[in-house]
Amino acid sequence: MKLSRLLLLPSVLLAVSLAGCILQPDREINLDIVYPTAQRSEITMKYRVPPPPPDKVYVLWILNPDLGRQVKIGQIPPATRLSAIKTSVDFFATGAVVSIESSADVTQMSTTWALKAGQLEPSSTLTPRPK
Hints:
- This protein is mainly β.
- It has no helices and 9 strands.
- The strands form 2 sheets. A 5-stranded antiparallel beta sheet has the order 1-2-3-4-7, with no helix packed on it. The protein has a 4-stranded antiparallel beta sheet with strand order 6-5-8-9, with no helix packed on it.
């Protein structure tokens, strides 16, 4: 995962750019997150993903597992070319998931994901890497 950070003072604007793993050649996800305050995240997600399986839809979720926060943004269309979605949440976002769902009306994210980027597990479960 590519991670870059920008910190500007004195207004304390933090921006993070995250690139998800490209496990298949027809899928890609990149996140740019700007934190205007500690309680607000402005997210630009660039992605491409083929059509979902029959009778399935893609749903975008923004999350912060350390805070136990997960917000469904909504259904997103497949994209064969890099497409962008802009959204915001009222918490410090650390990752995004595009899940594969049977309906856009779901209230809980499934464990079947088409795309993912950022921190998706609580920090306490991450294994430190030796330097």
